[in-house]
Amino acid sequence: MRLPYFNRRQQGVILLLAAGLLLLWAWRANFFRAPSSPPPRQLNFIFVEVSGPGAHPGVYVFGHPPTLAEIWQKSEARGPAPATAEKVTSGRRVEIGEDGHYQVLPMHGAELLTLGLPLDLNQASATDLAALPGVGFALAQRIVDYRQQHGPFKKVDEVMQVSGIGPRLLEKIKPRLIIAEGKETADKCR
Fold first, then answer.
1. Which is nearest to 123 in space by CA: 186, 46, 51?
2. Residue 47 CA, distance from chain mean position
3. 188 assigned to some structural domain
4. Same domain? 125 vs 96
5. 32-91, pLDDT tens digit by residue?
Protein backbone atom coordinates (compact mmCIF):
# COMPACT_ATOMS: atom_id res chain seq x y z
CA MET A 1 0.00 0.00 0.00
CA ARG A 2 1.28 3.31 -1.00
CA LEU A 3 0.80 6.46 1.09
CA PRO A 4 -0.47 9.58 -0.66
CA TYR A 5 2.04 12.20 -1.60
CA PHE A 6 1.43 15.81 -0.56
CA ASN A 7 3.32 18.69 -2.07
CA ARG A 8 4.61 21.53 0.10
CA ARG A 9 1.54 23.66 -0.40
CA GLN A 10 -0.79 20.86 0.68
CA GLN A 11 1.40 20.09 3.69
CA GLY A 12 1.23 23.77 4.71
CA VAL A 13 -2.57 23.76 4.54
CA ILE A 14 -2.73 20.56 6.64
CA LEU A 15 -0.36 22.06 9.23
CA LEU A 16 -2.43 25.26 9.41
CA LEU A 17 -5.65 23.26 9.87
CA ALA A 18 -4.02 21.13 12.57
CA ALA A 19 -2.72 24.23 14.37
CA GLY A 20 -6.16 25.84 14.13
CA LEU A 21 -7.85 22.75 15.57
CA LEU A 22 -5.27 22.60 18.36
CA LEU A 23 -5.86 26.28 19.21
CA LEU A 24 -9.63 25.78 19.14
CA TRP A 25 -9.31 22.79 21.50
CA ALA A 26 -7.02 24.78 23.86
CA TRP A 27 -9.44 27.71 23.85
CA ARG A 28 -12.45 25.49 24.62
CA ALA A 29 -10.48 23.81 27.42
CA ASN A 30 -9.72 27.28 28.95
CA PHE A 31 -5.95 26.89 28.69
CA PHE A 32 -5.48 30.60 27.99
CA ARG A 33 -7.58 31.87 30.87
CA ALA A 34 -6.39 32.36 34.41
CA PRO A 35 -7.76 29.70 36.76
CA SER A 36 -10.99 30.83 38.34
CA SER A 37 -10.90 31.52 42.03
CA PRO A 38 -12.65 29.01 44.26
CA PRO A 39 -16.19 29.90 45.26
CA PRO A 40 -16.34 32.14 48.31
CA ARG A 41 -16.45 30.26 51.55
CA GLN A 42 -19.81 30.52 53.23
CA LEU A 43 -19.26 32.30 56.51
CA ASN A 44 -21.79 31.45 59.17
CA PHE A 45 -21.67 34.22 61.69
CA ILE A 46 -23.33 33.79 65.06
CA PHE A 47 -25.19 36.90 66.24
CA VAL A 48 -25.82 37.23 69.98
CA GLU A 49 -27.42 40.28 71.54
CA VAL A 50 -26.36 41.31 75.03
CA SER A 51 -28.63 43.52 77.11
CA GLY A 52 -29.12 44.55 80.72
CA PRO A 53 -27.25 46.74 83.16
CA GLY A 54 -24.54 44.16 83.84
CA ALA A 55 -22.76 44.43 80.45
CA HIS A 56 -22.18 46.67 77.45
CA PRO A 57 -25.34 46.19 75.39
CA GLY A 58 -25.19 45.42 71.70
CA VAL A 59 -25.16 42.69 69.10
CA TYR A 60 -21.92 40.73 69.11
CA VAL A 61 -20.66 38.62 66.21
CA PHE A 62 -18.85 35.32 66.67
CA GLY A 63 -17.36 32.92 64.14
CA HIS A 64 -18.62 29.93 66.12
CA PRO A 65 -21.34 29.31 68.71
CA PRO A 66 -19.92 31.04 71.80
CA THR A 67 -19.99 29.92 75.39
CA LEU A 68 -21.34 32.25 78.04
CA ALA A 69 -17.76 32.90 79.16
CA GLU A 70 -16.89 34.19 75.66
CA ILE A 71 -19.99 36.40 75.68
CA TRP A 72 -19.05 37.71 79.14
CA GLN A 73 -15.56 38.55 77.93
CA LYS A 74 -16.61 40.21 74.66
CA SER A 75 -19.37 42.30 76.28
CA GLU A 76 -17.21 43.17 79.30
CA ALA A 77 -19.92 41.91 81.64
CA ARG A 78 -19.57 42.45 85.36
CA GLY A 79 -18.82 39.60 87.70
CA PRO A 80 -17.54 36.12 86.97
CA ALA A 81 -18.79 34.33 83.89
CA PRO A 82 -21.02 31.30 84.37
CA ALA A 83 -19.00 28.11 84.55
CA THR A 84 -20.98 26.29 81.89
CA ALA A 85 -19.67 24.97 78.58
CA GLU A 86 -23.06 25.28 76.87
CA LYS A 87 -23.06 27.15 73.58
CA VAL A 88 -25.41 30.01 72.70
CA THR A 89 -26.97 29.80 69.26
CA SER A 90 -27.42 32.61 66.77
CA GLY A 91 -30.43 34.85 67.26
CA ARG A 92 -30.41 34.68 71.06
CA ARG A 93 -30.33 37.53 73.56
CA VAL A 94 -28.39 37.25 76.82
CA GLU A 95 -29.82 39.58 79.41
CA ILE A 96 -27.28 40.20 82.19
CA GLY A 97 -28.30 41.80 85.49
CA GLU A 98 -26.16 43.93 87.79
CA ASP A 99 -25.63 40.97 90.12
CA GLY A 100 -24.45 38.63 87.34
CA HIS A 101 -27.74 36.77 86.95
CA TYR A 102 -28.60 36.13 83.33
CA GLN A 103 -31.34 34.89 81.04
CA VAL A 104 -31.02 33.56 77.50
CA LEU A 105 -33.99 34.71 75.44
CA PRO A 106 -34.80 34.98 71.74
CA MET A 107 -33.89 38.24 69.99
CA HIS A 108 -36.73 40.53 69.01
CA GLY A 109 -38.23 39.92 65.56
CA ALA A 110 -37.10 43.14 63.89
CA GLU A 111 -33.50 42.50 64.95
CA LEU A 112 -33.59 38.91 63.70
CA LEU A 113 -34.92 39.99 60.32
CA THR A 114 -32.38 42.82 60.06
CA LEU A 115 -29.57 40.32 60.63
CA GLY A 116 -31.05 37.94 58.03
CA LEU A 117 -32.08 35.40 60.66
CA PRO A 118 -35.49 33.70 60.54
CA LEU A 119 -38.31 34.03 63.07
CA ASP A 120 -39.58 30.95 64.89
CA LEU A 121 -43.24 30.83 63.88
CA ASN A 122 -44.21 29.07 67.11
CA GLN A 123 -42.37 31.43 69.47
CA ALA A 124 -42.67 34.85 67.80
CA SER A 125 -44.93 37.42 69.39
CA ALA A 126 -47.38 39.54 67.40
CA THR A 127 -44.86 42.41 67.52
CA ASP A 128 -42.16 40.12 66.11
CA LEU A 129 -44.42 38.83 63.33
CA ALA A 130 -45.51 42.36 62.43
CA ALA A 131 -41.91 43.03 61.36
CA LEU A 132 -42.33 40.59 58.44
CA PRO A 133 -42.81 42.28 55.06
CA GLY A 134 -46.50 42.53 54.17
CA VAL A 135 -47.67 41.52 57.65
CA GLY A 136 -49.17 44.27 59.77
CA PHE A 137 -49.99 44.10 63.45
CA ALA A 138 -53.60 42.94 62.87
CA LEU A 139 -52.51 39.98 60.72
CA ALA A 140 -49.68 39.18 63.13
CA GLN A 141 -52.21 39.06 65.98
CA ARG A 142 -54.42 36.69 63.93
CA ILE A 143 -51.39 34.38 63.49
CA VAL A 144 -50.78 34.35 67.26
CA ASP A 145 -54.49 33.80 67.98
CA TYR A 146 -54.60 30.92 65.49
CA ARG A 147 -51.52 29.36 67.10
CA GLN A 148 -53.09 29.63 70.56
CA GLN A 149 -56.38 28.07 69.39
CA HIS A 150 -54.95 25.26 67.23
CA GLY A 151 -51.57 24.58 68.84
CA PRO A 152 -48.11 25.05 67.35
CA PHE A 153 -47.54 24.99 63.62
CA LYS A 154 -45.91 21.82 62.33
CA LYS A 155 -44.89 23.32 58.95
CA VAL A 156 -44.48 26.91 57.83
CA ASP A 157 -47.03 26.34 55.03
CA GLU A 158 -49.76 25.85 57.65
CA VAL A 159 -49.74 29.61 58.25
CA MET A 160 -51.89 29.87 55.09
CA GLN A 161 -54.80 28.66 57.21
CA VAL A 162 -54.80 32.06 58.91
CA SER A 163 -57.28 34.43 57.32
CA GLY A 164 -55.45 37.05 55.24
CA ILE A 165 -52.45 34.93 54.21
CA GLY A 166 -52.51 33.78 50.62
CA PRO A 167 -49.96 32.13 48.34
CA ARG A 168 -48.27 35.41 47.36
CA LEU A 169 -47.78 36.57 50.94
CA LEU A 170 -46.63 33.09 51.96
CA GLU A 171 -43.96 33.17 49.21
CA LYS A 172 -42.79 36.53 50.56
CA ILE A 173 -42.54 35.53 54.23
CA LYS A 174 -41.69 31.82 54.02
CA PRO A 175 -37.88 32.32 53.71
CA ARG A 176 -37.99 34.38 56.89
CA LEU A 177 -39.80 31.80 59.03
CA ILE A 178 -38.75 28.53 60.65
CA ILE A 179 -40.28 25.96 62.95
CA ALA A 180 -37.68 25.37 65.66
CA GLU A 181 -37.92 22.21 67.69
CA GLY A 182 -37.71 22.26 71.46
CA LYS A 183 -36.90 25.94 71.95
CA GLU A 184 -38.12 27.55 75.10
CA THR A 185 -38.78 31.26 75.54
CA ALA A 186 -36.19 31.57 78.26
CA ASP A 187 -33.45 28.94 78.09
CA LYS A 188 -31.38 29.53 81.18
CA CYS A 189 -31.38 31.59 84.31
CA ARG A 190 -28.80 31.89 87.00
1. 186
2. 10
3. no
4. no
5. 666 666 666 666 899 999 999 988 999 999 999 999 999 999 998 888 888 888 899 999
